Amino acid sequence: MLKKIIIGVVTVFFAFCSILIVKQHIRYPRGTQVVYAMQEPFTIGPFQLEVTDVEGLSLTEFCDLYDLHMKEEDFEASYNIQVILVRLRVTNQSENEQNVPFSGVMISSPDYANSIELFSAMDINDIGQEGLVLQPQETREILLPYIEYGDSYGVAEGSLLDQVPLRLSFRLYPEKTVVKLNDLW
To answer: Which residues cross the membrane (predicted)?
Structure first.
């Protein structure tokens, strides 16, 4: 009896989720992808964004540069841990103060996707618990660190930026907005 109840609940949940997905696709029948290059400004909602620079650092270099206490010795050395550091210029174009939701910005390759290292981003950008709030017409450059394991990409040594096609994804639907971080795509 319990098995039938569990199967029924799972079936109802699956049907409910399917209905929501179908409604979303009816509302936005075609998702599109817009691709930008580095140093090409674009707009999402009330923000004008521009990826101005990207660099790859070892985890030790990154921690030493920003005086963070996350050392490579805490991880297995075989992973080839790197930090991809993306510099992003954000301008609030609205007439109201806005909270910048940069935690949803993903870095991806053809095979993997990864989210921002949020606590390191808050530390190196001096962002408190309230998040990053921009006043009207205020511009700020922020650094987005992504901790990547070279072994996950099949890169035993050397920079991921030189060997793996990487891009940032800012929004997924209805319009996927991406910025290419290197010329390997």
So the answer is: 6-22
Rounded CA-CA distance 120/150 in Å is 19
Number of Cα atoms under 13 Å in the Cβ half of residue 61: 12
How crowded is residue 12: how many other Cβ atoms within 10 Å of its Cβ?
Answer: 10
Tell me whether residue 24 is in a domain: no
Report cis status (omega within 30 of 0) of the bond before 174.
Answer: yes
Tokens of 25: 């696709």
Could you tell me the residue range of the domain that residue 70 belongs to?
A: 32-180
Rg (CA), the chain: 20
CATH of the domain at 88: 2.60.40.1240
Angle at 121 between CA 115 and CA 124, to 5 degrees: 160
**pLDDT for 32-88, tens place per residue?**
788 999 999 999 889 999 999 999 988 888 888 888 876 555 665 556 788 899 999
Distance set, CA 21 to CA 18, 30, 74, 125 (Å): 5, 13, 42, 37
Whether 101 maps to a domain, the answer reads yes
Indicate the length of the chain as a whole number. Answer: 185
Residue 49 counted as domain residue: yes
Run of H or E residues at 10? helix 2-27
Please check whether residue 23 lies inside any domain of the structure.
Answer: no
